[in-house]
Amino acid sequence: MLEVNNVVKIFNPGTINEKVALSGLNLHLKPGDFCTVIGGNGAGKSTMLNAIAGVWEVDSGSIIIDGENVTRLPEHKRAAYLGRVFQDPMTGTAATMGIEENLALAARRGQGRGLKWGVTKEEREQYRELLASLDLGLEGRLTTKVGLLSGGQRQAVTLLMATLKQPKLLLLDEHTAALDPKTAAKVLELTDKIVAKDQLTTLMITHNMRDAIAHGNRLIMMKDGQIILDISGEEKKKLTVENLLEKFSEASGEAFANDRMILG
Q1: Residue spans per domain, the chain
Q2: 11: CB partners within 8 A, 6+ apart
Q3: Average predicted confidence (pLDDT) for the chain
Q4: For residue range 229-252, what is the model confidence (pLDDT) as tens digits?
Q5: Of 105, 201, 228, residue with least CA distance to 157
Q6: Mean pLDDT within 10-38
Q7: CB-side neighbour CA atoms (13 Å) of 251
């Protein structure tokens, strides 16, 4: 479903501020893979997601989604293949529009615009049902402006919007990092539920090692723009934070130095 082949991305090449963000990155995901991504600051995690989404044009290599080479496609054309949820709950929704209007926008992504009613009666019932599945009491607040919701509620709505059209690939960029632990756990529970229901191929960056171990069927760790650990199957199920730190040390030849991730 996703092939990232020998991708290189260098920022400010040829200057004193040159930074090699992705260094010959290779990653292949099978349909239905739920892959968590961890790594220290500057490891290349967000650059990888932005390269896949088309935010950054890569310097070399190729990106293929479901057999289609999207390497040179601009971000707005690549959006047809992707769903994305960002770290900031304020991103990904229109704050001054109602919940149902935001969901309707997501449902119409990639379609031409006409002069029909914004939200039909049938759609309203569908959205009410979807929101009820979140168990956050939002099904009775369809016309509430999204900007008035809590961070967790807003992130849950964003998750619904990102998966409404069942994208080829779902990108989750530390989508619980700005939430308190209880709300983050709820959003992760919803993530597992939605990904499993629609068997979505998913890449989830997280700063929390325990979450990376507990969710998904595969875990990769990045360092210096490359994948240095790739763990799946039974090995991942038996993994502990201590094992992971040990494996990192073996693979990189140094200790993992990111307190935020170790203590998260």
Answers
A1: 2-94+166-263
A2: 17, 18, 19, 21
A3: 87
A4: 999 988 988 988 888 888 878 776
A5: 105
A6: 94
A7: 19
Confidence of residue 200 (pLDDT cuts 50, 70, 90): very high
**Residue for token digits 């759609």?**
123
Handedness of CA 219, 49, 158, 176 (dihedral sign): positive
Tokens 């967790």 label which residue? 152
Residue 31 — very low, low, confident or very high, per pLDDT cuts 50/70/90? very high
Q: 36-57: buried (b, 16+ CB within 10 Å) or exposed (e) per residue?
A: bbbbbeebbbbbbbbbbbbebe
Helix (DSSP H) and strand (DSSP E) numbers for the chain: 10, 10
Q: Does domain 2-94+166-263 have CATH number 3.40.50.300?
A: yes
41 CA to centre of own chain: 17
